Structures are given as structure tokens and as C-alpha cells.
Amino acid sequence: MKNKFPFLPKHIAIIMDGNGRWAKKRGLERTEGHKVGAEVFRKICQYASDLGIEYMTFYAFSTENWKRSATEVEKIMDLLRAYLGEMQEREEENEDAGYNIHFIGSREGMPEDITTLMDIVEARSSDKNKIHINIAVNYGGRAEIVKSVKDIAKRLQSGEISVEDITEEMLSENLYTAGQPDPDLIIRPSGEQRLSNFLIWQAAYAEFYYDDVMWPDYTGEDLDRAIEAYLKRNRRFGGV
Ligand code: IPE
Ligand code: IPE
Ligand code: MG
Asked: Is the full-model pTM beyond 0.85?
């Protein structure tokens, strides 16, 4: 599958949206949509890895998603728990053994057993390099920027740095995505055309691709289509 495209975006970010509407349309509970959505997430990780994409970021749960019913939030946490359990026990011969997994978002307010598993999975996969997979959980772009500013403010307060030392790079280095390239392509299925607080700093020069397909129906072909559209774009970064 490698070399399917003349070149590839280095970093693709996906807002996994439409689970609830997908379920409702079928007369199912919203949680059924999340269950299928979680399977699709696994498939797209594998597909992106086969294509040779270096970085993928998936928006799984936002800081605003706590507003949903307790049942729905619990179901999403259960799905996350199940995924983390699998990742913790994965065998070396499995495809996903090459994934370098990183969780972006705040650990505060998250169930403790989940944050413990997140630490284990991150530590065990930190030396892998087949593909970098960021999973955004309890993630909010504004909260992330505030976190970065606070980290910098502490260094300023202690006298370690001065106001003049503060740069865009310093802000970037204190985000959850420190050390990673910004997303080249951000995909949102389900017909919505908004960022919903996703990677707002990192998205400065990202190309957007919106798609009407609901996340539980998302396939590798849909990803191909987004990449094809991306390859036709002319990125100018303010130049000519
Ligand atoms: C995305 O699907 C999953 C999460 C936000 C956790 P939604 O649950 O937002 O699905 P819709 O937008 O209601 O269809
Ligand atoms: C964004 O989707 C969050 C995730 C997909 C995890 P939402 O469904 O929460 O976004 P809004 O509410 O439609 O903006
Ligand atoms: Mg939604």
C-alpha cells in the first residue's frame, strides 16, 4: 500500500463525528454509534499505518463532551478502557505493536484507572515508530493554550526566562503536541464544518476537508478521497 500516492501529508487529524446521528438513523441508542465508531478508529489506524502516514491525531472526547448524559459518557469511557486494555496486552507480532501512542488532553477529571492505563500504554509504545497516533481525550484547544501559557508563566515567575524569550515556538513546545509537526490535513466527517475546539493553535495552516459520511461508516476509501483532495491544494503559507 505504500507509494499509493505521490506524496503524503505528514500529519492527518480527524474529528470522529457523527456516531450519535448514525445510531439514531438506525433506531439504535447513541452508544451503539460509539461502539461502531471505536471499531472504525482501529481500522483507520491500521489503514493509515499501511499507507505510511507518520502522524495521525483522532479527536475522541472533548472537554465539552462532559455535558452529555452520564450513560453516554460512561459508555465512551468504557470503550476507551477496553481499547487501553487491548493495547496494554498487545502481542509483539500484531500490527498495532508498531504504534507510538500518545494521549493529548487533560488527565484531570478522568477516571484514575484510565489515566493509569494511558501512562502504561504511552510508556510501552514510546520507542515505536511505525506511526505516531495521538488520541485526544478530555481535550480542548483553548485549555491546551492556557496550559502552555501557565507553564511559560511559571518559568517567567521563577526568573528562568524573560518576557522577550517568549516565542511562538515556546508556546508550541508547551502544548500536548510538543515536538510533533502541525497537522497538514484536518478531516471532519458527518457534514459539520467547524473545529469544535480541536487543535486550534496547531491548525493555523492546516487544510480542511469536510465529508458527509458519518464516522461509523468511514472507510479507507474515504481517507483516500481526503488525501487526493489535499494533494490538489496549493498551500501558500502566506507566500505567493
Ligand atoms: C462523535 O460523535 C463522538 C463524540 C463526540 C464522543 P457524536 O456523538 O458527536 O455524534 P453526533 O454528532 O451526535 O451524531
Ligand atoms: C467534537 O464533536 C468532539 C469529538 C468528535 C470528539 P462534537 O459533536 O462534540 O462537536 P459539536 O458539539 O457538534 O461542535
Ligand atoms: Mg457530534
From this structure: yes
